[in-house]
Each structure stands twice: as structure tokens, then as C-alpha cells.
């Protein structure tokens, strides 16, 4: 069972805010006029609410509208992102949305080809995925022999000369628009994920940089704009298991 942190945080903020408002605008005046004292249990709730409400409100605003932290759970975005990376996701990249109901209230921008994006899985919205935007609304895509063709143009790919072929696979540099990023090919003979796709209006086609080990739009379909969470922008920590953090990855910009 997944925990809806946004819902819990919103409810706690609303509750403590309501208690603080009740005390400030009603209870104090009534107690002052009657000369009585506040019930001890209620007084405790009020004191805790006064302490926690500003903190909860601050966290809710930051998490809902500015930045939200995420942990990378798998290797589907290797070599760009590794399992155990902790990243910041810019929530306002693709519009400001109200927490819990995810209703967009302000337009701020749209995804561009090559952006690394966190989105909610359409079949299970409580689960977040992270992939790269490959196709924009209306695009015609072909993925064949580990090469991408977008609207009839073959996407440029070059072998990464600084990275030898290892048991993990071969690394290539792919150019998507103005974005250069690394991709990983672990099985050059893999053709089971080849296909031709048309991106519907209001949707985006996502793929993992670990092209042979990613459950992406080739399997789950194009992602509706309504399910976008934000753009992944920076790694703030890397820790996998009980090992020491990998200090070199801290602060790395996500390309």
C-alpha cells in the first residue's frame, strides 16, 4: 500500500491552520470576555498547532510548487541516473498544480525534447516514474536497431570514446535538440522493443536512457500532460544501501 504524502501533509496543514485560526479569531476573545480558562487538552492542541503550522505550511508550499525530492529506485535511466541517486524535481516547470487534486492553476511552460521528467504512471497514479521526453504531441517516432527517428529525421548518436564497452553495456552520446546525453545499450541484438509510434495531442513519449532495460512509453504508452510532476534538474545525494555516499555525484546537473 502506497502512502499519499501530499494528502497527509495537506490535511495536517489544514488542521493545524484551522486550530490556530479558531484560537486567534474566536477562542481567545470568548475566554477573555468570560474570564474563564481554556481546557488543558485543547490548550495542548493549540500550542502544538501554533508550533507546527508554519513549518507544515512552508514544507507544503515548497513541495507542491517549487521543488520535491525523489529517490531513483532502479537503473532504467543509466548512465544518466543511477539507482540510489536522490534528485530535486522542479515542480513549476510545467505549470503550478494544486496539491492532492493536481489541478493546474497557472501555466508556466511545456516539456521540451530531451528533458528528464518525473510523471505519474497512468495505470497507477500513486506510482512515480522518471524518463526522458523523446516525443512531443503530434510527433511520428520510429525506434529501430537502437536508433531513433523523429518526424523522419534520424537522431544523431556517437560512441562515447571515453567509455569502454563493459559487461554493463556500451555507452553512446545522443543529441536531442540542444540536449546531449548518454544512453546505454546492453543488448545490441535486442529488437523486441522496436516500433513505430504516433504521439497523441496532449501527450508525451518517454524513454529511459538504459534503452534495453526500461519500462517506458514503448510499453505503457504516451503520458498525458495531466500526469507530469516536474523536471528533474539536479542530484543532491547518492547513497545505495549502507555504503558511503558517492560524493562526486552530489550537486551534479541532470543533462
Q: How would you describe the overall organization of this protein?
A:
By secondary structure, the protein is α+β, with helices and mostly antiparallel strands. Helix content is 24%, strand content 33%. It has 3 helices and 16 strands. The strands form 4 sheets. A 7-stranded antiparallel β-sheet has the order 1-2-16-5-6-14-15. It has a 4-stranded antiparallel β-sheet with strand order 9-8-7-13, with no helix packed on it. A hairpin with a 2-residue loop joins strand 8 and strand 9. Helix 1 (5-34) runs antiparallel to helix 2. The radius of gyration is 23 Å and the shape is elongated. The mean pLDDT is 89.
Q: If classified by CATH, what would the architecture of the largest domain be?
A: Ribbon
Structure classification: alpha+beta
Which band does the percent of strand residues land in? Answer: 25-35%
Instruction: Note the run of SSEs as H and E.
Output: HHEEEEEEEEEEEEEEHEE
- Mean pLDDT equals 89
Integer tally of domains: 2
The CATH class of the largest domain: Mainly Beta
End-to-end distance:
33 Å
